[in-house]
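ARCHIVE CARD
CATEGORY: sequence design from structure
SOURCE FIELD: tokenized fold
FIELD CONTENT:
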């Protein structure tokens, strides 16, 4: 949200709890709602030009937030004539599973099978819903995200077999790449990883 505002965008932040978003700006509109409720999403979608979707939940509470929430986003976009969707997913499942061959042992043998399995299933459903929609979509798949600072120096569009990839990237750099897709046609109707 901060980066979008700094770049001159008018932002509608759809949040469960506006008090948790400690930002004020003349170009920021806070919309309190629940992505699991379609009518709530439809109201927020009025007069929008594009959507950046970053739905998430703790790995131990994956639930159906990504699948149901993304389905509601798609329906609300189609109803309101909003066509551009940029969605943050995750690297490490589906056709990007091969990237995990280089992951640390603990990631491959413990974290993914015991903690991230349900999350990856939700991401797969989420991506399928997006690809089956009539929207102009881009899916961004970051590796493990950290709270480190923005660098502006990261990779995207790489082969998932690239052995030079790191298994981390800052949330700030992921945000930068998500926002850049608002004005880029490079990854329309495509998925791409993003990593260092």
């Amino acid at each position: 949200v901060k980066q979008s505002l700094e770049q001159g965008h008018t932002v509608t932040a759809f949040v469960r709890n506006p008090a948790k978003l400690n930002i004020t700006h003349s170009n920021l509109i806070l919309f309190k709602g629940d992505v699991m409720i379609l009518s709530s999403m439809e109201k927020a979608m009025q007069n929008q030009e594009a959507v950046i979707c970053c739905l998430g939940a703790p790995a131990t509470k994956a639930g159906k937030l990504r699948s149901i929430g993304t389905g509601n986003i798609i329906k609300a976009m189609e109803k309101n004539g909003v066509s551009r969707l940029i969605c943050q997913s995750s690297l490490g499942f589906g056709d990007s599973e091969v990237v995990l061959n280089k992951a640390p042992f603990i990631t491959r043998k413990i974290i993914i099978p015991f903690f991230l399995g349900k999350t990856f299933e939700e991401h797969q459903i989420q991506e399928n819903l997006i690809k089956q929609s009539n929207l102009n979509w881009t899916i961004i798949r970051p590796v493990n995200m950290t709270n480190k600072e923005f660098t502006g120096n990261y990779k995207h569009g790489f082969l998932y077999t690239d052995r030079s990839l790191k298994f981390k990237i800052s949330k700030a750099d992921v945000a930068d790449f998500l926002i850049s897709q608002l004005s880029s046609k490079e990854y329309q109707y495509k998925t791409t990883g993003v990593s260092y």
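CARD ANNOTATION: The mean pLDDT is 92. DSSP finds five helices and nine strands in the chain.
SHELF: design records, drawer C
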